[in-house]
Amino acid sequence: MKGERxxxxxxxxxxxxFKFMYKAGDRAVGMEMSQAGSVASxxxxxxxxxxxxxxxxxxxxxxxxxxxxQSAFLVLREGREEREERPITREGARSVQAGPxxxxxxxxxxxxxxxxxxxxxxxxxxxxxxxxxxxxxYYRLQAATTALLESPDGEWAxxxxxxxxxxxAQPAKLAALQDAQLEALFTAVAESQRQGGxxxxxxxxxxxxxxxxxxxxxxxxxxxxxxTLGHAYAxxxxxxxxxxxxxxxSAAAEIARIADFLVLDGAASELAPEGAAxxxxxxxxxxxxxAVRSVKPAAVxxxxxxxxxxxxxxxxxxGLSGIFCSAGxxxxxxxxxxxxxxxxxxxETLDTAAGGRQ
Length: 358
Hints:
Elements lengths: L1 H8 L17 H8 L4 H14 L21 E4 L23 E3 L2 H4 L2 H12 L3 H24 L6 E4 L10 H24 L6 E6 L4 H19 L1 H6 L2 E5 L5 H10 L3 E4 L8 H22 L5 E4 L1 H5 L1 H7 L3 E4 L1 H31 L1
Parallel strand pairs: 1-8, 2-3, 3-4, 4-5, 5-6, 6-7, 7-8
């Protein structure tokens, strides 16, 4: 499969390095933080420096970690943010985008007009009428994608492939809806590129149970991308997997061989009490991560959903690549992540100094 060929060897000169928010090699930031009076104040200074400084190098949009590259922990956005929620920057400055913004496309189906069209399409028994409804759904999805790409979040977004529960037992209808969505997504991307836009749109296949199932979905996406955008963009489009915490670790490892990145979705655990959900999510994440890294050591594995933000410290400790969280959770998550990274750096400095005295 194409995904397997790319997982170790793809190093295109056109790719821009994956811009980690927290770099261990940033000595200036480390020195400033070491002078702070407390872990909390150091973390606050660190966050302020990251969010306010200008971007002087292009974004890196690869999900591959190069040999010897130190790992980082990313705190990424989940869901669209209103303009007023963005940090205020100086005129002409660009905010750092460390990775993609997670967009759950099911939320588009909840918009009143699109929801009405979708309900009529589901219940329609007339094939001609159903096709017309699906065509109108396509146009609405294209408009939603265009709005996303024209927003700051469109600089780099990871969009889930539609997977409504009510279509689980209707594979033909599900395939038709996903085909319409993919064509809408890629048509909007093509139009943005024609207008000179610099956007990135990656795909997430949701809740596949095996490597074979994910491979079939990946091939389906690549065919539509190739037909809509041409081979060059289809080859550059990253395709990841959104997996549930209860997936078998061995199945997650199979999927990881083919996927460009993985997102462990904590939304499936949110019905449980917060503490129990976070604890169960962490245990599942540890088992899945161990299985994935055993077959693909450099795999990028992220987490999403409320339990992910609640279990941030534990997910950091087990070596997860980062989390997606909502706007309301992000400030606290950034602070907690910065504290953890600062503590780790200080411990590394102490260990190095102790080793030098021996």
